[in-house]
Write a structure and sequence with these properties.
single chain, 332 residues, mainly alpha, Rossmann fold, Tyrosyl-Transfer RNA Synthetase, 2 domains, 3-stranded parallel beta sheet, two-stranded parallel sheet, 12 helices, 5 strands, binds adenosine-5'-diphosphate, binds sodium ion, ligase, protein biosynthesis, aa-tRNA-synth_I_CS
Length: 332
């Protein structure tokens, strides 16, 4: 198996990012055999589809890499790098731009959602983003790509581009990547509003637990999390209609690596006055070691940059034969 996955370098990662995304990467890494490879990249080229503040992009890239390392990405087992340092991504994206059709891109729901009514005012990059995504995975002959619901259409497009390129140029070059279905990632909701997702763009800092929050702040935010006054029931079914309560049980379960139903078996009958301190202890026990490593790593940003550079060297070597073969197929 060769698994390729990217994440945009944004600042201020939170518990939702950790439980919903980063931890899935750690699980993939841990599931790989000796013949398998995971490539994880910071999608700094994709970040260009939106307005960029140069100093922030650079800092976010290092901070995101440090966060991934702190969460358990092992640069000896996985290849961790940033996209911009492997020119094959951009080069192959250009080559595939000859294969992808405008009609295909016009059908992408993310493009339609993000561009809204102002299509003419969007960057070209926002429109062609899915072609770069195709290059991201095809450059490495990825066999599997982890995808959430929102990315399924883009993976389909990558498969279509791979197939059309192979047909058009009469080659068996690109592997068609399959979606990698991992254990369902939990969706973590805001601590202030159980129906909104926990997000860095929420103006209320109390709505989320940031990976850099200290132990006291974590406990305080969980203590103040909005809930109802009913005790925890015995089954998940009985939690329906109680989004805040459901969210706290979901968070506990995800942190503990247990099923929510199993958590209810243990805590049924308890009110949030009892459950929240237990949840806070659980959160601190998971997040404190991550924050400690993250702080250490951020104390030596040069070392993080060096880790990314050595990942990029390995990634360049893996992508080179495919890029060359693609050029030759086209007649370049
Ligand atoms: P944000 O919503 O904070 O801007 P991003 O959109 O940058 O987060 O998402 C980065 C990754 O983290 C994505 O894989 C996304 O699915 C995941 N993620 C973000 N928020 C949550 C959440 N509240 N629960 C679960 N996963 C999340
Ligand atoms: Na977002």
């Amino acid at each position: 198996m060769r698994v390729v996955s990217g994440i945009q370098p944004t600042g201020n990662l939170h518990l939702g990012n950790y439980l919903g995304a980063i931890r899935q990467w750690i699980a993939m890494q841990d599931a790989m055999g000796t013949e398998d490879t995971c490539l994880f990249f910071l999608a700094d080229l994709h970040a260009l589809t939106q307005p960029v503040v140069a100093a922030e992009l650079a800092a976010n890239t290092i901070e995101m890499a440090a966060t991934l390392l702190a969460c358990g990405i092992d640069p000896d087992r996985s290849i961790l790098f940033n996209q911009a340092r492997v020119p094959a991504h951009a080069e192959l994206a250009w080559l595939l731009g000859g294969t992808a059709r405008i009609g295909w891109l016009n059908r992408m729901t993310q493009w339609k959602d993000k561009a809204g009514k102002n299509r003419e005012g969007q960057s070209v990059g926002l429109f062609t983003y899915p072609v770069l995504q195709a290059a991201d995975v095809l450059a490495y002959q990825a066999t599997h790509v982890p995808v959430g619901d929102d990315q399924k259409q883009h993976l389909e497009l990558a498969r279509d581009i791979a197939a059309k390129f192979n047909t058009d140029f009469g080659v068996e070059l690109f592997t068609q990547p399959e979606p990698f279905i991992s254990a369902a990632a939990p969706r973590i909701m805001s601590l202030r509003d159980g129906t909104a997702k926990m997000s860095k763009s929420d103006p209320s800092d109390a709505s989320r637990i940031n990976l850099i929050d200290d132990d006291d702040l974590i406990a305080q935010k969980l203590r103040k999390a909005r809930t109802d006054s009913d005790p925890l029931p015995e089954t998940m079914k009985e939690l329906e209609g109680r989004p805040e309560a459901t969210n706290l049980v979901t968070i506990y379960a995800a942190l503990a690596g247990r099923a929510p139903a199993d958590v209810l078996v243990e805590f049924a009958g308890q009110g949030f006055g009892q459950f929240k301190p237990v949840l806070a202890d659980m959160a601190v026990s998971v997040l404190c070691p991550i924050r400690t490593r993250l702080t250490e790593l951020l104390g030596d940003r040069g070392a993080v940059a060096a880790t990314l550079e050595s990942g990029a060297n390995r990634a360049r070597a893996l992508a080179a034969p495919t890029l060359l073969a693609a050029q030759q197929a086209i007649g370049l």
